[in-house]
Amino acid sequence: MTEPSVTRPQAVIFDVNETLTDMEPLRDRFEEAGLPRDAMDTWFASVLRDGFALTVAGGYADFAAIAAEVLKELLVSRGAADGDVDPGTAVDNVLGAFRRLRVHPDIPEGMRLLHQSGIRLFTMTNGAAAMTEGILAREGLLDLVEARLDVSAPRAWKPARAAYEYALGATGVRPDQAALVAVHPWDIDGAQRAGLTGAWLNRRGLPYPGTMTAPRVTAPDLVTLAGRWA
């Protein structure tokens, strides 16, 4: 099915975790902690669950705090904490590696194409803006991104509308002039409910959930997406 024509955005807002960053190296840290490599998926999904739940209930905690608590619980429930692994050390190793992640191979070229075409670039993460800045700086991409944002200011995790409205405020453009680029359907759905264009990077060729609003744009990688807008 051919996608409808989508107006070229003035501003592109990137999700960070998994969209920009490749989280696969974290599996080594989980294995070192005595957990199976696929425990990373359970951990990350549980961190999102707790962040979302707090937002819905009117509460807030930052990513690092939730990530540490979820990992400690996982270590205990899987029996890893009964061995030679110190839970505190395991948490430090995982979160330390999380801050040192690299971007996916398609990201540098895609971001440069968008920037060169005059589209303004931003990031908005449920994690920490400081972590995003560190990753972008190591990759030589920091100067391309006008502002690195996170949910600590609105105190609401994406996909809450307040998170997208905060990011839009930083861009200074109308919702219909901005696009949110993400690999997560829940992020695409939330952005589109807030009036933005959702651009889904479907790197793994997965079906999009029929229960969520369909993305306005779909691409297998950022270079392909940038080619449509550049």
Automatic annotation (TrEMBL):
Signal peptide: none annotated. It comes from the Bacteria. The keyword Hydrolase applies. InterPro entries: 2-HAD, HAD-like_sf, HAD-SF_hydro_IA, HAD_sf, PGP-like_dom2, S-2-haloacid_dehalogenase. Keywords: Hydrolase. PANTHER family: HALOACID DEHALOGENASE, TYPE II (AFU_ORTHOLOGUE AFUA_2G07750)-RELATED (PTHR43316:SF3), HYDROLASE, HALOACID DELAHOGENASE-RELATED (PTHR43316). Belongs to the HAD-like hydrolase superfamily. S-2-haloalkanoic acid dehalogenase family. This is Haloacid dehalogenase type II. It comes from Sphaerisporangium rhizosphaerae.
